[in-house]
Amino acid sequence: MQDDNHSNKSDTSNQPGFLTSLIQGGIRDTMTLWISVLIGTIVGAGVCLYIGAPLIFSLLGGLIVMAVYVIYM
Questions:
Q1: pLDDT band at 8, cuts 50/70/90?
Q2: pLDDT for res 35
Q3: Which positions ≥6 away from 39 have C-beta within 8 Å?
Q4: Which of 55, 35, 37, 38 is nearest to 46 (CA)?
Q5: How many helices (H) does the chain have, and how many strands (E)?
Q6: CB 46 within 8 A of CB 62
Q7: How far apart (Å, rounded) are the C-alpha atoms in residues 28 and 13?
Q8: Is 61 exposed, middle or buried (CB count within 10 Å of its CB: 0-12, 13-18, 19+)?
Q9: Tell me: the pLDDT tens digits for 16-65?
Q10: What would you report as the CA-atom Rg of the chain, rounded to the nearest whole angstrom?
Q11: pLDDT 10s digits, 62-72
């Protein structure tokens, strides 16, 4: 049974504003990107150590992960 004395409007004072949502999304996406690049670089370093290549090539792993991330976003 519905109470007829109260409206069905919800209180929107707890919802974040546009700028807050934009900043939170930007921080979340940036952190996700850099964590993914870090993981790709670490895996690339492991591969370089395994095959005996210079570690500078491990940065290619991070760049490849970043490129794939940007393509799918």
A1: low
A2: 92
A3: 65
A4: 55
A5: 2, 0
A6: no
A7: 23
A8: buried
A9: 788 888 999 999 989 988 998 999 999 999 999 999 999 889 998 889 88
A10: 23
A11: 898 889 888 98
Q: Residues 59, 63, 69, 71: what is their CA dihedral angle, to the nearest 10 degrees?
A: -170
Q: Does residue 65 contact residue 39 with C-beta atoms inside 8 Å?
A: yes
Instruction: Give the C-alpha separation, 72 to 65, whole Å.
Output: 11
pLDDT of the residue at 49:
94
Which DSSP symbol is given to 10?
Answer: P
Contact 44, 68 (CB under 8 A): no
The Cα angle at residue 24 between residues 23 and 29, in degrees rounded to 5: 100
> CA–CA separation, 48 vs 70, rounded Å?
24
